[in-house]
Amino acid sequence: MKEINYTHYFWQDEVLRLRSIQAEDWEGHYYNRFDTPARRLLECAVELPPTITEAKKFAESYSDFDSGNGRIMFTIESLQGENIGGINLNSIDERNGTFSIGIQVDQDFRGQGYGTRAVRILLRYAFFERRLHKFNDCVLEGNEPSATMMKKLGCVQEGIRREVIYTDGQYHNLILFGLTKNEFIEHERLRETL
Questions:
Q1: First-to-last CA distance in the chain?
Q2: Using one digit for the tens of pLDDT, what is the confidence trace for 127-177?
Q3: DSSP β-ladder status, 98-105 and 134-140
């Protein structure tokens, strides 16, 4: 097989690349399920204990963008091919032009900007290729890394949904963030001039 030339490839930046989930990615999903604090922030709940069967089924059902449920799932990998985590485009409303993004960065790679880079790639795709207009997302109160990432991307805190998530024995707020296509363009323009 010929070596791939990634020089002008849309789905990457200088550090990472997004690719389709492959069946062999089950292992990363499986091991991430043991990180209860991170999974609680992502899923807003404690999940049942992970199983290898579930992890393999997950990877198989989302491999090659075949899920059919409207969620477009990617694996995040370094340019050297190391698996960094997963990201997805979801809650796509074509009529109103809105969408959301879900992301989990593996524990060893957190706090290094990989999540922000991966979301930026998906935002470019959603805004400039899918013609979507508004990114909406929410962060569980106390999830400071995700809130910080939203702000780095130029998202505006639009509100708080009070006491709507019950986990860890108490009710928690959801912090609502939003970003329009024009706000993204302006934020990227300012970022490039710095």
A1: 41
A2: 999 999 999 999 999 999 999 999 999 999 999 999 999 999 999 999 999
A3: parallel
The pLDDT tens digits of the residues spanning 44-82 come to 889 999 999 999 999 998 888 866 677 899 999 999 999
Distance (Å) of CA 112 to CA 16, 28, 46, 75, 77: 12, 19, 26, 17, 13
Contacts of 111 (CB under 8 A, 6+ apart): 145
pTM for this model (two decimals): 0.92
Residue 134 has phi, psi (to 5 degrees) of -140, 125
CA distances from 48 to 36, 45, 51, 87, 194 (A): 10, 10, 9, 21, 45
Nearest alpha-carbon partner for 141 in 155, 123, 160? 160
Dihedral angle over CA of 60, 58, 130, 17, nearest 10: -80
